[in-house]
Amino acid sequence: MKRIMKTRSLMLVLALLVLATGNALSQTAGNPVTDLLLSAWSPRNYTEVPVTDQQIDMIVQCGIKAPSSRNGQPWYFTVLKNEAVMKEIISNITPGNVIIIISGKVSQSGTTPDFDCGLATQNMFVAATSMDLGARIYGGPIAAARERQEALGIPEGYTPVMMLRVGNIEKSTDAVSGASPRKSKEELVNYVR
Ligand SMILES: Cc1cc2nc3c(=O)[nH]c(=O)nc-3n(C[C@H](O)[C@H](O)[C@H](O)COP(=O)(O)O)c2cc1C
């Protein structure tokens, strides 16, 4: 009995230690989420290795999981794999890439579909990057998607807001020098203490 209690106490101490270490780590380098956010970038060059359906499914699930105003989920996702149609929308698309079109529900007052679609887009960007894929958000060619709304099967009442290109990239590419620089914290942040 004594031995069982001793083992249990030891396990409790060990569990507390693991928790405490985890907490400390989460605020330093080594936190996989912050490390990923700080090293993510948007490639333009892709290989022709196709993105798998399993990968797409996980990415889309992460988009669906995004938060939205009043949990209204005012979005619709179109997974476009047809090479000819993809080329009509993003002219330099690489075979094997996928375009996910994020469409937003036409706005009623008090809702924020564009913002919510942005969150879903970013969730999918981060998910794809975490899966060792490349991802780039595209808003410039959105008119080409809007013109093809019916052919793309996007339901009435929704309009394409943003697109996410996903593909495989050369693993040797240096992500840090590939990313565009950002403005400094001093320039962008103020503190009211
Ligand atoms: C709302 C939005 C629209 C964008 N539209 C385009 C686009 O039309 N074409 C393009 O090449 N990149 C587009 N981008 C990608 C940005 O140029 C890219 O995220 C930015 O330059 C940062 O690059 P980095 O992630 O490599 O640091 C867009 C990004 C966002 C967030």
Keywords:
43% helix; 193 residues; alpha+beta; 4-stranded antiparallel beta sheet; globular; binds flavin mononucleotide; NADH Oxidase; 2 domains
What's the topology here?
Elements: H1 2-25, H2 32-39, H3 53-64, E1 75-80, H4 83-89, E2 98-105, H5 113-130, E3 134-138, H6 142-147, E4 158-167, H7 175-178, H8 185-188
Antiparallel strand pairs: 1-2, 2-4, 3-4
Helix pairs in contact: 3-5
The protein binds flavin mononucleotide (FMN).
Task: Walk me through what this model shows.
This protein has 193 residues and is of the alpha+beta class. The chain folds into 2 domains: 1-39; 45-171, 3-Layer(aba) Sandwich (NADH Oxidase), CATH 3.40.109.10. 43% of the residues lie in helices and 15% in strands. The chain has 8 helices and 4 strands; from the N terminus they run H-H-H-E-H-E-H-E-H-E-H-H. It has helices at 2-25, 32-39, 53-64, 83-89, 113-130, 142-147, 175-178, 185-188; strands spanning 75-80, 98-105, 134-138, 158-167. Helix 3 (53-64) packs antiparallel against helix 5. Mean pLDDT is 88; it is low at 10-25. Flavin mononucleotide binds at residues 41-42, 136-140, 179-180. Flavin mononucleotide binds next to strand 3.
